[in-house]
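Consider this today:
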Amino acid sequence: MDVDVVVIGAGPAGENVAGRAVRGGLSAAVVEEHLAGGECSYYACIPSKALLRPMELRAEVSRVPGLSAGPIDVEKVLARRDEAISGLDDSGQVEWVEKLPAALLRGRGRLTGPREVEVRAADGTVTRLRARHAVVLATGSVPIVPDIPGLAEARPWFSRDATTVKEVPRRLAVLGGGVVACEMAQALHALGAQETTLLVRGGLLGKMEPFAGELLAASMRESGIDVRTGASVVRVERAAADGPVTVHLGDGSALEADELLVATGRRAAVRDLGLESAGLTAEGPVEVDDSMRVPGTDWLYAVGDVNGRNLLTHMGKYQARVCGDVIAARAAGRPDGGPSLRDSADGRGAPQVVFTDPQVAAVGLTAEQARRKGLDVRVVDYDLGAVSGAYLLGDGYTGQARAVVDEARKVLVGVTFAGPAVAELLHAATIAVTAEVPLDTLWHAVPAFPTVSEVWLRLLEEYGL
């Protein structure tokens, strides 16, 4: 079967590549081994936020005098989560791909040579595809399994198990301090994991500004979550298939739980992808240039988690839009070097929201990252709770905002907010950082009163404008 573009992986990134390529006048085939729509739709962003929303609302209500937050109806929350992920039925996503139009092939796709892809279906049937212009790898990522004695044999949970949980365990141990670990620890604790223990080697949210992890740890502890920083797991065991799991720690102590969630990061999904047939090593992530093309080839591209630039759904979709437009332009002999045909956002620092309580929203560089790049930075902090709009959201509103200023250019290179409901502040920060809006110009963007957005005025006043 010959087609202009072959996309391996029908997650958000793969779907968007196909959509942009078809919009550019090309034909496309999309290969998917599991569910069209990918990890985000069924096992990550969508279900996790459905589980976190009740916790967030209960916290909001508890801060407003005159309202009372009753118990969470776990059965209804899980039912709504199931609705959000379409009961793990991807027929709607399949219909979307086919309406592009693009062909959707079920099976495991792998490279077999330049512009050649083999698709092996579950029944062993093999289909061979040849791409006239491009093959795009959009296979995503898989969880990292730490090399801890007994861990694999103890059948731990990973992110998929946590987000599609049918029965919340009473005792939950969580290994990791990143986004998945923090979000799922809070969500499942609110839904009935009465004894939740977070085991972290360092601090929480280690890739973000330190104050974000510190505020989150304090909130977790206040809610009853046992947060143990500086903890190392040396051995795991589960004596009976349906029995508890025992986690042995480096200090000689042991922790018993009903389930152990491992959330220690993810790696590019490149196993059995046939990278050797393209002259690449069989390891990930797959290196790409700013057009998403693999250096040394004129036909192979990679978008989303598999290229390792930013393991975030919205960034994978952004890369996919760039990639699909570039492929269409090159196929038609049009110029392919315009600003919209190159990835510039990844290098500036991707926007990200951690949907915990408090929420953490950040874009650009942290102060430490900016200094490591050799920038002369000034850090401006402000207490979010001191903003009038924050006070009106409820008693005890606690949060912090930080702006990282490049003093040489007088522009923002990083912004972080930590506090209740700060996610909606992020896009303004993303525009300021990405568009490199001068501070003197930003000062004239007047925030409405009384909103939490007035923190922008306070940050600029703290800076001296």
